[in-house]
Amino acid sequence: MTKPPTSQPNQPSPPRHWKVHVEALRQSGLSRAEYCRQHKLSYHTLSYWQRKLSSSKLTNKETTLVPVAFEHLINHQSVQPERAALKVILSDQIAVEIGDNFSSATLTRLLATLEHR
């Protein structure tokens, strides 16, 4: 186990100093508050460095690209739009075209919505 460095009052500590403390805290099994009391550290400063070092670990990880095969999802035939089995013209601005496989519940909600506008 790495022995944490002793703090020097009124001197800014380098990130390496805090990295050692964050690792020692993790290995100690102590609560953050107890660790700070024993090592005469600022609880809030140690918390800041824990977050900062934790997030820098996440951003420094290598990204690996993985090829994804989705050929089977593509239909190689040209897609033709479904011909409307029914066309309801409500005004010169609104026309509803309904295919063979329409949802009657959706059509009911649509017509109710248009009726109340």
Characterize the structure shown:
With 117 residues, the chain is mainly α. Among the domains are: 15-60; 82-115, no CATH class. Helix content is 44%, strand content 7%. The protein contains 4 helices and 2 strands. It has helices at residues 15-28, 32-39, 43-60, 104-115; strands spanning 86-89, 95-98. The protein has a two-stranded antiparallel ribbon. A hairpin with a 5-residue loop joins strand 1 (86-89) and strand 2. Helix 1 (15-28) crosses helix 3. The longest helix is centred in the middle third of the chain and has 18 residues, at 43-60. It is elongated, with a radius of gyration of 32 Å. The mean pLDDT is 76.
Query: What would you call the shape?
Result: elongated
Q: Count the helices. How many? A: 4
In what range is the share of β-strand residues? 5-15%
Radius of gyration: 32 Å
Distance between the termini: 72 Å
| Major sheet characteristics | 2 strands, antiparallel
Helix content: 40-55%
Mean pLDDT: 76
Enumerate the spans where pLDDT stays under 50 for 5 or more consecutive residues: none
Task: Report the structural category.
Answer: mainly alpha
Q: Give a count of the beta strands, DSSP E runs of length 2 or more.
A: 2
The order of strands across the largest sheet is: 1-2
Order of helices and strands: HHHEEH
Summarize this, please?
The chain is 44% helix and 7% strand.
Looking at this protein, list some descriptive labels.
117 residues, mainly alpha, 4 helices, 7% strand, elongated, two-stranded antiparallel sheet
